């Protein structure tokens, strides 16, 4: 009966001019708008996200940091500036039995230097910039010994050019005259740098940037030795040597800075920089000695024990030098904008002239008027020569950083 009704309905619709369509499923999608036109549209463009690193900077946009620095660096090597000889041996011309009182092991060790370090930086879309600097306090080391020659005689050490033997120039002798030796050294180091940073491929860290920049270091040091002797009649003989040195490094460097950590919690920060440039070195040596008789006028000569003849004056040169910086910091982020850190850093410069290196320990004492029993010699000593050493600075850092 149902089939007959459907057939009848189709016949009536056809007869009336209405086009019959086949039935559709209820779940079928409606026909697209272009179906009646008989054309096929162009395929749609799909935007697939692409990886922008390492070409886009990551991390904070702006930052400023400050650190307290506790540093130690290479001691200054010197001749034995202050010696003690047992009174029983003091009348011998050579320094038999001499014990060096200052500096210990012939090296002036300044101990720990306190200092500060600060930097500011910003990251843009494709690169970042950063500038910073540090300064260590001026540190001094000194020692003085004076007596009447008992139980030990005091003096300065040198090597006699005539005999080639270690010798002591006495400032005090038992039963003859009283006196002593005073020595003091100072040192100060500071520097600035600036770099451009660029994001790079990461390895074992969350982010790694390549650094290219400029660096300046300034090391100023001085060493002074003063030795007076007072005779029973009131006369005074004294000698003084003063040595000042400076090292100014200008150069470029390349390096990396890698960071590990999230916006909160612990992390690591590793920085390594290798630099090459020139260091302007300067050494200035000035000496003097004086005879002041009791009640008389002073007789002053512009020559000390170490700074005299070919070893007196101002000497300068330029030297190619290599620098290396390495720093590892343990960081802790309290939140995305505040970080604290504790770290270790190492800085090395391949060439530095130090005050002790400017001293020639070999002295032709036959030309020294305040040496009582000189050894004859024709050698032109002391003479200046460049004796540069590497400078190594080890430091602990404690700091904080604001970042946005």
TrEMBL record:
Keywords: Signal. It comes from the Bacteria. Residues 1-20 form the signal peptide. Pfam families: BBP7. InterPro entries: BBP7. This is BBP7 family outer membrane beta-barrel protein. It comes from Gemmata algarum. The lineage of its organism: Bacteria, Pseudomonadati, Planctomycetota, Planctomycetia, Gemmatales.
């Amino acid at each position: 009966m149902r089939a007959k009704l459907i057939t009848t309905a189709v016949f009536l619709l056809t007869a009336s001019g209405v086009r019959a369509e086949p039935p559709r499923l209820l779940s079928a999608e409606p026909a697209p708008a272009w179906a009646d036109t008989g054309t096929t549209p162009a395929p749609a463009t799909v935007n697939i996200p692409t990886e922008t690193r390492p070409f886009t900077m990551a991390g904070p946009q702006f930052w400023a940091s400050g650190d307290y620095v506790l540093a130690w660096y290479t001691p200054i090597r010197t001749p034995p500036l202050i010696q003690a000889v047992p009174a029983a041996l003091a009348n011998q011309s050579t320094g038999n039995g001499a014990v060096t009182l200052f500096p210990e092991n012939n090296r002036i060790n300044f101990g720990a230097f306190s200092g500060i370090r600060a930097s500011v930086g910003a990251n843009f879309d494709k690169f970042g910039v950063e500038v910073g600097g540090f300064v260590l306090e001026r540190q001094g080391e000194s020692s003085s010994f004076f007596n009447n020659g008992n139980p030990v005689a005091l003096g300065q050490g040198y090597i006699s050019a005539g005999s080639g033997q270690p010798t002591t120039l006495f400032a005090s002798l038992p039963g003859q005259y009283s006196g002593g030796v005073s020595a003091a050294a100072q040192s100060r180091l500071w520097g600035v740098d600036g770099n451009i940073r660029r994001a790079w491929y990461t390895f074992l860290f969350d982010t790694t940037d390549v650094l290219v920049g400029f660096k300046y270091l300034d090391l100023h040091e001085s060493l002074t030795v003063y030795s007076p002797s007072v005779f029973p009649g009131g006369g005074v003989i004294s000698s003084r040597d003063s040595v000042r040195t400076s090292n100014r490094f200008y150069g470029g460097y390349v390096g990396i800075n890698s960071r590990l950590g999230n916006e909160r919690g612990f992390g690591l920060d590793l920085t390594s920089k290798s630099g090459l440039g020139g260091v302007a070195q300067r050494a200035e040596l000035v000496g003097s000695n004086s005879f002041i008789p009791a009640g008389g006028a002073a007789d002053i000569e512009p020559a000390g024990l170490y700074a005299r003849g070919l070893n007196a004056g101002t000497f300068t040169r330029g030297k190619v030098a290599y620098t290396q910086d390495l720093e590892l910091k343990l960081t802790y982020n309290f939140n995305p904008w505040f970080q604290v850190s504790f770290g270790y850093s190492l800085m090395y410069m391949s060439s530095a002239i130090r005050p002790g290196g400017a001293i020639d320990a070999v002295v032709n004492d036959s030309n020294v008027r305040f040496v009582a029993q000189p050894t004859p010699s024709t050698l032109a000593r002391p003479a200046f020569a460049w004796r540069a050493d590497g400078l190594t600075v080890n430091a602990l850092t404690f700091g904080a950083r604001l970042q946005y």
